[in-house]
Design brief:
Layout lengths: L8 E6 L3 H5 L1 H10 L5 E6 L6 H9 L4 E6 L5 E6 L2 E5 L6 H7 L4 E6 L19 H11 L7 H15 L4 E5 L6 H16 L2 H10 E2 L3 E4 L9 H9 L7 E4 L3 E5 L15 E3 L3 H24 L5 H5 L2 H19 L6 H12 L8 H5 L2 H18 L9 H14 L14 H9 L3 H6 L2 H4 L6 H20 L7
Parallel strand pairs: 1-2, 1-6, 2-5, 3-10, 6-7, 7-8, 11-12
Antiparallel strand pairs: 3-4, 9-11
Helix pairs in contact: 4-6, 5-6, 5-7, 6-7, 10-12, 10-13, 10-15, 10-16, 12-13, 16-20
């Protein structure tokens, strides 16, 4: 990349999946449509996945069609053109490193899923994960890795050597305090690698704003390309689909400038905390609840579970009884937000699958659900409603253990042997509630196990009362 002043500033994004292209890339596209073309996106993947999609995007000059659908079923189509360079995957990450080391690149953003950060509740890296240990070893030898930390370290090393200036590292994943956690994880990674000079450079030249992202973005349906062709007349090999709702809240802490996102609807704030807590506990946790329960009920899609009165009741009570009280006071109308979330989940045209939403529970339970348990216990209050969520996951896990989940369950943070051992235990509820990955410092707390045990009885009763053949 040339660093000619006539060229736009660059936001390098790692992870060109559907969510990035339906969210961050859309916001920059809309900014560019206003005539503000000072920024563009370059991006690629740090793992050898999505090869066909990346090839299609490259062939289309980075352009693609976004289909959105409202709860009323209204579909709209927009051609997105904010990605100016697509970098094909290369194990050396040479293309991404080159862009990251260019002075015109001022932001490196990323979406690698919640489990891709290998952090416990205290923001400590868990080097028991093979990928992370391998990355530490590779980075010590000057090689790029396959985790976000290995990739960022390689990029920042090159940037420091090029004297390319300050950089903002912008986490766009559903992770509480995602900027703070990225800083903590990356700092520990660089310390483990032993690169003191790079660590000092990062501390002086990098910023890590927290952000909150929200848009339901299912995996593209098989007939999406055909719908796009019919609606637009354009053959598109890399379309994406999403709900009409979209939100992005970012702490305004950028080390080297940023796009004027606030002109196209992004909320630039001093603290993302209240927005983040509402979204993670009300939307993300409820999403998982419905996915686990819906799978047990024999449903394939999120909207089916949301429209099932018994499942919706569990989700509604969880938010109303246990979440809203601990988040008050809030700048958000939490009851209205709960209702909007359930309306969004009931959108039949999104066809978001339980398989996609159910994944990574061993990251989502500690991140999305346990904080509410902890807050309720600290206040001396009941956890009966929130306990239904780990109880549903236990029933889901037992079904997985028996080989009776109708899809492949993916969970980067789960040790399959440990998960099977929970299900094989004489007391699976006790085994689940003693798992430190799931419950952290609450593992083994009798208040938790008692509540989950009672909730498990309710789940088992519900299995017999619902009218789905597989829910028994």
């Amino acid at each position: 990349m040339s660093s000619s002043p006539s060229q736009p500033f660059v936001m390098l994004h790692l992870g060109l999946g559907s969510f990035h292209r339906a969210h961050q890339a859309l916001y920059l596209h809309r900014l560019r449509q206003t005539g503000d073309t000072r920024w563009t996106i370059a991006g690629g993947n740090i793992r050898p996945d999505m090869a066909d999609t990346l090839a299609a995007l490259q062939a289309q000059g980075g352009e693609y069609t976004l289909e959105t659908v409202s709860p009323a079923g209204v579909r709209q189509y927009e051609r997105i053109s904010s990605i100016s360079r697509v970098v094909p995957y290369d194990a050396s990450l040479a293309g991404l490193i080159e862009i990251g080391a260019d002075p015109r690149t001022r932001i490196v953003s990323f979406t690698v899923t919640e489990a891709g950060y290998y952090l416990d509740a205290k923001h400590r890296l868990d080097i028991a994960f093979d990928d992370l240990a391998a990355d530490i070893d590779a980075t010590k030898r000057g090689l790029p890795g396959k985790t976000i930390y290995g990739a960022l370290t390689a990029i920042l090393r090159a940037r420091r050597q090029a004297d390319a200036g300050a950089i903002t590292l912008l986490n766009c994943d559903n992770l509480r305090h995602n900027g703070d956690r990225t800083r903590a994880g990356l700092t520990q990674f660089i310390e483990l690698v032993g690169d003191t000079a790079l660590l000092q450079w990062v501390q002086q030249h990098a910023s890590f704003p927290n952000s909150m992202v929200d848009r339901i973005t299912p995996r593209p349906a098989a007939d999406l390309a055909a719908r796009v062709l019919t609606a637009t007349g354009r053959a598109d090999a890399a379309p994406v689909m999403a709900e009409s709702f979209i939100q992005w809240v970012i702490e305004d802490r950028f080390a080297a400038g940023r796009p004027s996102w606030e002109t196209v609807g992004v909320q630039m704030v001093d603290s993302v905390d209240p927005y983040e807590e509402a979204k993670i506990r009300i939307l993300n946790a409820t999403h998982s609840c419905i996915a686990w329960a819906g799978t047990l009920a024999g449903h394939q899609f999120i909207h089916e579970g949301t429209r099932d009165a018994a499942i919706r009741h569990i989700a509604f009570d969880y938010v109303s009884d246990d979440v809203i009280p601990v988040l008050q006071p809030s700048p958000i109308d939490l009851a209205a937000y709960r209702d909007v979330v359930l309306e969004r989940f009931a959108n039949a045209d999104i066809r978001d699958t339980n398989q996609r939403v159910a994944m990574d529970a061993f990251s989502k339970i500690p991140g999305f659900i346990v904080p509410t348990i902890r807050d309720r216990l600290a206040r001396g209050e009941s956890i009966a409603s929130v306990a239904m969520l780990p109880a549903l996951f236990l029933a889901f896990l037992q079904r997985w253990h028996e080989g009776r989940i109708p899809y492949t369950y993916e969970d980067q943070a789960m040790d399959p042997a440990s998960a099977h051992a929970i299900c094989d235990a004489a007391d699976p509820v006790d085994a689940l509630c003693r798992d430190t990955i799931l419950f952290g410092d609450l593992a083994g707390d009798s208040r938790v196990s008692d509540a989950v045990r009672h909730a498990t009885q309710r789940v088992n009763s519900l299995m017999h009362t619902l009218n789905q053949e597989n829910f028994r």
